[in-house]
Model the fold of this input.
Amino acid sequence: MKKYVAEFIGTLILVFMGCGSAVFLGCDVPGGHLAVALAFGLSIIATAYVIGNISGCHINPAVSLAMLIQKKLKGVEFAGYVIAQVLGAIAGAALLKLLTAGFGLADLTGSLGANGVANAGGIGGAIIVEIILTFIFVFTILGVTSDERKGSVAGIVIGLTLAFVHIVGIPLTGTSVNPARSIGPALFAGGDALANVWVFIVAPLIGAAIASIVYTLVCRNKKA
Done:
């Protein structure tokens, strides 16, 4: 159970801090876009060095899917990870909802930082954007975690890569690359955010699967 509790806590932190930076700071103020991207990346760095040795610090169903494909995770574990991650994301979004609706703090996004498709040219554009961004993110994770010599810097590399993909993705979809991160805010935002949340579930999973397959074909040591 420690693995699942760790994934719950890690995903809660990611959603609260990442989406919270968008909710309370906004992306339209000078530097806001970069600050939100860094908040997501720094959340990964912070949690990686706390729960990384417990659960691997996936805190993302797309990452867990890639690890399942790589046979580093069993089917039952995968299900447990995803449940814990989604519940953690919902808890993180619930805390943001409490602060905005319960204590009157302004939500500058109007949707608890939920993802959207409009700025990406609609559903098709959002799907393509999310597949590409998730591919980059998961491909990097597979590369940096495959070599034990990189273990001391893995959390930093992964966190900076998440910030990296957010820099491009925030103006387009708000950047998901993580179905759990999208589900949490969408449940409370409702409306279009909830109606289109399937995009941010399906596309990251596709991107992660492609990244895992490409990594196996191109990068993984065949002798291993």
